[in-house]
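Handout, page 2. Input:
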Amino acid sequence: MTGADRLALSAPIRAPDVPAVELASPTRRDEARSAMAVAAALRDRGVPIRDVAVAVRDLDPYEEPLFRAALQSGIAPVFWTQLRVTRTRPYALVESVCEALAGDAVDRETFLRPLEFRWSPAGAGGGDPPAAASDRSPSPDPAWPIEPEAVHRAREALPDGSRPIAEWIERVDATDGVDDRFRRFAEWIDGAPTPDPASVASLLDEVIEAYADCGLPETKAADEPALLDTETDARAVVRVRTLVRQLRHKFADRLEDGTLERSWGDVADLAGVIATQRPGRREHSNARALDVFEANDLWALDVPYVIAVGMTAEAWPQPSQSVLPPEFQEAVLRGDGASGTLAPQPAWVGGRDRDQFVDTLRAAGRCVVFTRHTRTPGGDDVARSPLLDHVETRRVSEADRRRLVGAESALPPALRAVVDGRTDADGGAAEGDRE
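Output:
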């Protein structure tokens, strides 16, 4: 690789010839609101919502503000992102059950935690409220999962300290305000088998199927109209079902090679190893929803309007995480002397981010809208992404941005010209400054 080839990693970008509009907002939340207002204004001018897509370099800091802004604009968003299954309630339920089974004795928090994550017995369904604590006759069809208020009361009433499950059953029987559902759960824990590949699969499969029957409807009942939490919960149920199948085979392999013991604690640890592999992505079929993508998923996308969010120097390109000092990286990139035998990392000059930026441009058939914010929550300035220097953009004035997010929902003139099919891409000299 020659020095010219190395430095070509940071050469000018050959941008596709589509109109580009740039919209700056004061804060990240203002930016999210502006981005969704653009999508809503395009929809209101007759652009089908499936002809619009939102692209973000990293969804983690943007998913929540974009979701809220979408609902304010009357849009149902769907987020195409890797599912972090370890952050979901179905996974937390499986993990907490393994922890409750792991030792000869458990403390109060460990004992009650599966109930916090909506543990229900196999075949359970909704029904009448449970019998009062003073009336120990069980309800014929008790309500599952146990409501959070009842779990909280049990935590307040039951004694602290670590004790065997058999003793917890006695404590439940002797404590006012703790109904028979807690006893049923404790007896289920007490009767759990010693972990082997078959029993691990059958017990955890029972747990997750009961959650699908009883826990998932609770999520849906409390969800927003866009059902984002329900979608995540349902996707997590599917993922944990797969995890349980994998866990059976992995546990058998680890027992055979002697790297794990036959314990529920090791089952929990192995489940964590499998879950953090994060395979797969969400799938959607809602033709009336707005797709929100991470930038690395745009390479095959073809949509008329793309709204690229987060065009700041802090996020796009992201700073290199290399442990090598910048001076050494620069020397390797230049290839002078002995450093010419070393291969540079494209990440040192934002090579991956540059590729994804080009993919974003190429995905837009008619227009790309770049949004960014200018201040941090602490009031510090946020610089414009240097990638925008490679594109001729039309900036939206602050007055036009306010009209966009205000009651008028007025599309900025430069973008309105594209929608109307006019050739005056400037949108009028008074509306912005060409970059």
